[in-house]
Amino acid sequence: MLMPGGPRITFAVMPQAPVRRAWETHPQGIIPRVLTQAEVAVSGMHPLLERRVAHLAGRIAAKFALVHHLRTHGHPLEARDIGITQRMAGPEEGRPVAQLPAGVPSCDLSITHSHGLAVAAATGRGRIGIDLERASPRSSALIEEAFTQVEQDWLSRCELLHDRTSDERWNLGWCIKEALVKCTGHGLRASLQHVTFSGWTDQGAVSVPLPALTDEAGALARCITLHTPRTSSAPLTGLLALGRGYAFAALHDLSEDGAT
Ligand SMILES: CC(C)(COP(=O)(O)OP(=O)(O)OC[C@H]1O[C@@H](n2cnc3c(N)ncnc32)[C@H](O)[C@@H]1OP(=O)(O)O)[C@@H](O)C(=O)NCCC(=O)NCCS
């Protein structure tokens, strides 16, 4: 999809159930077709099966997003031509990194997984951060801890969210914060209230094919420009989605274009 005024973002969704079946019963199936031995070995290090499957599904979604994105831009690579590693230290520890063959322009990517789904996003410009959450109840203590008063007021009064449930509203707010920290890399280990927004400008509905998320009647999918205290000139653009019991946010930062 095209963010308003921005370059193309490619999303891919991977349900975790087939990945789990493949891991348990089809060792020659999708996993080795898409992931390198090193990537499978890293996923295999997670002691909990659930975490291992989520990690594998996230990596598979990331490969699909990258392959599709690069093909659209004239670089017809196969999934195993691409490597996915992660920052091993520093403030961005854990951030996924795409390793592309020489001559292929760099891409930024982001991965999220929650309750049986994994989603990845890839872009050739700037930095991307995404987050997916099940729209489940959040305690008032957690809301107080995570959101500033300005954010609480915005999320409670925002016209776009009037007909949505409060679970959807708070989880969407949570997704925005997680997407923000993943996108900027700043404040990952800071207090949740240090990663702030004061609202957004709605850029309109968007038809975005996110299977298992936005493919139901009544799903919300809107492009936005997020208002943050940043002083940089480039606006942070994004996608907000609610559907099938999930909340999802993607934020795209063009101010650090080329910095990835
Ligand atoms: C990085 C973080 C935001 C991930 O969020 P999460 O909801 O726990 O998990 P998600 O499934 O959405 O995302 C996990 C993916 O984020 C990515 N990630 C991890 N560290 C990252 C970083 N520093 N920057 C960008 N992406 C990162 C990884 O790809 C990871 O998946 P993987 O381990 O399978 O590779 C979270 O673990 C974290 O450190 N939070 C700090 C607390 C905070 O400020 N939260 C804001 C909440 S309002």
TrEMBL record:
GO cellular component: cytosol
Keyword Metal-binding: no
UniProt keywords, alphabetically: Transferase
Tagged with keyword Glycoprotein: no
Pfam families: ACPS
Example GO molecular function: magnesium ion binding
Alphabetized InterPro entries for the sequence: 4-PPantetheinyl_Trfase_dom, 4-PPantetheinyl_Trfase_dom_sf, P-Pant_transferase_sf
Biological process per Gene Ontology, one example term: lysine biosynthetic process via aminoadipic acid
Gene3D superfamilies: 4'-phosphopantetheinyl transferase domain
Domain 4'-phosphopantetheinyl transferase, chain residue ranges per copy: 127-203
Family: Belongs to the P-Pant transferase superfamily. Gsp/Sfp/HetI/AcpT family.
Protein name: 4'-phosphopantetheinyl transferase
Record organism: Stigmatella aurantiaca Sg a15
